[in-house]
Amino acid sequence: MSSERRAERTPDGRYVVIDGRRWRATDPLLPEDVAARLRSELMSARRAVGQALRARDAAAERAARDRVHAAKVALGERGTPWWEQSEDERRARWEAGPG
Fold first, then answer.
1. What digits encode the pLDDT tens for the residues 2-41?
2. Do residues 44 and 36 lie in contact, with contact meaning Cβ atoms separated by under 8 Å?
3. C-alpha to C-alpha distance for 70 and 25, rounded to whole angstroms
4. Residues 6 or more apart from 24 whose CB is under 8 A from it?
């Protein structure tokens, strides 16, 4: 059995559905190199959350979770929905992101 998840976009393109659950999609206006950098930061931050949990280090966990949040906002997956932002606001969001 494959553990690969299949993501389908909703007809409006704003969300992906994974295992029956709807999640906000990454901003499609993001240049691929920026999106790749932000996804890399997101994965690094998620690994740091796990390390902090295993170490039972609350301060490190908080810092790692803040990094996760910052990457998700920069990707357009949290915060003001990307479809409600102008192109300039969207660009400012990802340029202010981590990394």
1. 445 678 999 999 999 998 899 999 999 999 999 999 999 9
2. no
3. 15
4. 14, 15, 76, 77, 78, 81
